[in-house]
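Morning - fe (iii) ion inputs below, output right after.
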Amino acid sequence: MHVDALWTRVHLATLDGAGYGIVEDAAIAVRAGRIAWLGARADLPQALRAAQTHDGKGCWLTPGLIDCHTHLVWAGSRAGEFEQRLQGATYAQIAAAGGGIRATVRATRAASADALVAQSERRLRALLAEGVTTVEIKSGYGLDLATETRLLQVARRLGEGHPLHVCTTFLGAHTLPGEYEGRADAYVDALCDWLPQLHARGLVDAVDAYCEALAFSAEQTGRVFDAAQRLGLPVKLHADQLSDLGGAALAARYRALSADHLEYSNEDGVRALAASGTVAVLLPGAYYLLRETRRPPVELLRRHGVPIAIATDCNPGTSPCTSPLLIANMACTLFGLTPLEALAGLTRHAARALGLDADRGRLAPGLRADFALWDIGHPVELVYMLGGRPCVGRVVDGIPFSA
Ligand code: NIG
Ligand code: FE
């Protein structure tokens, strides 16, 4: 068997199955960007010939991390709002006073594509340095056709200019832009018109909405989802973050890839997610920064067998976070996940939250050769350390990159 590259002297955590999938003193072979073989080094097929061999020097190798929920592309900063909240203002009050998402929309509309690339690249590099090989990027800070187009184009450009895979999500239904004040239904009509145009330009992989009292109702969200489904696009939802509007059940009704946040979801909603195969994406960064006290129903999600993913939710308002490993730690300390659940949430289940579980998120023959290499003694250390910088390399489609 001829392969392009072989990594030896590595320990694997395949995340393929119920546990970590640990294989110590292992090897993994890549051909044409896919995993060709993996297993204990002692079992390496005699006939295997590699064009290139990499000495893993005792590192651990896991599936590349997948950050399945980010708003990575924006302009400006909302550090002032953080200060205001520390002095007692709430997220909803700041939004009602014209700050919040609208503040970022003003800064983003004024920014050129190049300026957006420059700001966002810094955040992207931080993700790369922590072993991310696939990232989802939402629009939603434009809220007019020109700026939403620019955001999605910038997201695509980031994917072309850096060694990782970018999935784009249209989040036109993020908040009501000022020019539509009092005319939310007209805005929903408008964004349903934009969607086919954005889709025709190849800019949209999925459609998201923010269903919340300070954003869009369940009925309005349903109209956005209907428009997505007419185009055959999968949907996902910011659901039940600050109140229970039945978001989980709504997402399930549309067979959403994921329902995200879920702090206020009830058991019927969780049951519906289980039945529709929708992934629960938990976002402890936003919970932490907003100093929320209501935790997502992790025990119910487990009991009903809903796959749990976690993500940075990288955004300027509620989670200015570019560290998936810190998020994994928070998922354990704040939400009660186990370290294994947290790692599965950044790999196997995150892949499923993007509809990409057939080709990534685990280490198994035939899957995409997207890996992260770590200088650690055991996978739990990835979740345990705070700011440990354990990533020593990444492999994307079989091609190695330094961290
Ligand atoms: O995921 N909830 C809506 N969207 C973001 C916050 C966006 C912002 O405040 O800029 C979130 O938490
Ligand atoms: Fe979000």
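Note: The pocket of fe (iii) ion (ligand 2) is lined by residues 69, 71, 238, 313, 315 (CB under 6 Å).

O.
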